[in-house]
Amino acid sequence: MTPDEIEALTFDVFGTVVDWRGGILRDGAAVSAKHGLSVDWGRVADAWRGRYQPLLSDVREGRRPWVVLDQLHREGLDQVLAQFGIAGLDAATREEFVRVWHRLDPWPDVIPGLDRLRRRYILATLSNGGVRLTVNMAKRAGLPWDAVLGAEVAQAYKPSPETSARLLDLPPARCLMVAAHYSDLVAAREQGFRTCYVWRREEWGTGEKNDLPADPGLDLVVEDFAELADRLGV
Amino acid sequence: MTPDEIEALTFDVFGTVVDWRGGILRDGAAVSAKHGLSVDWGRVADAWRGRYQPLLSDVREGRRPWVVLDQLHREGLDQVLAQFGIAGLDAATREEFVRVWHRLDPWPDVIPGLDRLRRRYILATLSNGGVRLTVNMAKRAGLPWDAVLGAEVAQAYKPSPETSARLLDLPPARCLMVAAHYSDLVAAREQGFRTCYVWRREEWGTGEKNDLPADPGLDLVVEDFAELADRLGV
Q1: Residue spans of chain A under pLDDT 50
Q2: What is the secondary structure of B173-201 as a DSSP string?
Q3: Cα–Cα distance, B166 to A125 (Å, whole number)
Q4: Of A71, A102, A133, which residue constitutes the final position of a domain?
Q5: Which of B81, B102, B123 is the last residue of a domain?
Q6: Complex-level ipTM
Q7: Which residues of chain B have a CB within 8 Å of the CB of A170?
């Protein structure tokens, strides 16, 4: 793959662009302080994120009709609060906390990296997050997306890469999917996308990731968006 | 309507945000010079734009399946070139000229106005133009859209306002539709949107518009985006 074969970069968002775990810890600490709770928000964050795939699967496999991700986040939070025996959060507090996913911060390299990449490429989100979530996050953080695509626009989890390529009027091979999750890239590669894995070693707060096989068969593997911009020569 | 009742502004694009007629004249002059043609591009522009509604109606009323606007622009151009007896433009030139709709310039007040409005409101396009067209136009001109919605995302001409409100997770009454065409605003009002008419007296190159009735029943009527920002207090 050469840089001029690519016209658009499509980005997974949670974990790849923004630090969901750090955001939950940050807002969780504020909730603890306000309500006088002692909570291990790291465990809550991991459990909440862990509810993600099972809830998505119910929609993906047709056991329930389409709902936007906010609703799945809401149900996941209720399950996790019950699991950890965290009581005393009123409905308004829980609803506000669900929207922490709209308020996540990008990793430090993201904004400078995207500002380089946007000069040459169309930058689109291809996330399970809804349009409003992605717009709110972008306005708050200054993420310079050219288009917000993904699950809600395609009405499908995982957002269909080919729907996004069609909306961008591009053959899939002109699109580079960027994600910190190998499974996202395998799915995109099956649709003919080019693929870039980004190490986000702190996604789970551990300093390590272990989802990338020794011979991943991807077009690029980069440490962060600065290296991605370097590799694409922008 | 007060400014704080509104959370998102949804914009018609052709005529409201960008000067389609001026763009066709500009690129038409370049085609004339290159190919040694004498063409009244103003008449071509008006006739091409005039082909718009009949071609859209074929899709809207189910006489043909969904196609993206580029295809309708292509067919309209071929019809207009035949109508005016303009021969000698090869396929590559015609294809390049069809994409003039991706290269239209905003009216002079647009960028400064949007830069004020974006501080407080979500700015979304709600256009018949496709996603790629709208993205190309925005990147070229620096239009700071938060989301590209409209016909292709909704898979319907005229883009359904309620689809856009749903994607923005807003009741229609929290959305202000901004258009230089009264009929667009009547349609949006029927969906519960707030409405703002923008005089674009040069849309047809005549210095005047005549589609606004004496008692239009709209929330705002403004001269340009500077006045819109003034009226919304941003």
Answers
A1: none
A2: GGEEEEES-HHHHHHHHHTT-EEEEE--T
A3: 18
A4: A102
A5: B102
A6: 0.93
A7: 132
Residues of A in contact with B130 (CB under 8 A): 167, 169
Which run of H or of E encompasses A42? helix A41-50
Extract the tokens encoding A143. Answer: 């993420």
User: Scanning the structure block, which residue is given the tokens 């109606």?
Assistant: B57
Query: Nearest Cβ partner of A147 from B135, B167, B170?
Result: B135
CB contact under 8 A, B146 and A138: yes
Length of chain A: 234
Residue A150 near residue A34, CB atoms below 8 Å: no
Asked if B167 lies within 8 A of A132 by C-beta distance, the reply is yes
Q: Could you tell me if B147 and B193 lie in one domain?
A: yes
Structure tokens at A159: 């957002």
| Range list of H helices, B61-160 | 69-83, 91-98, 110-117, 131-141, 151-154
Per-residue pLDDT tens over the stretch B136-191: 999 999 999 999 999 999 888 877 788 899 999 999 999 999 999 999 999 999 99
Q: Kindly report, residue by residue over B14-61, the tens digit of the pLDDT.
A: 999 999 999 999 999 999 999 999 999 999 999 999 998 999 999 999
| Tokens coding B61 | 């009323």
> Measured between CB atoms, which of B122, B130, B138 is closest to A169?
B130
CB contact under 8 A, B167 and A131: yes
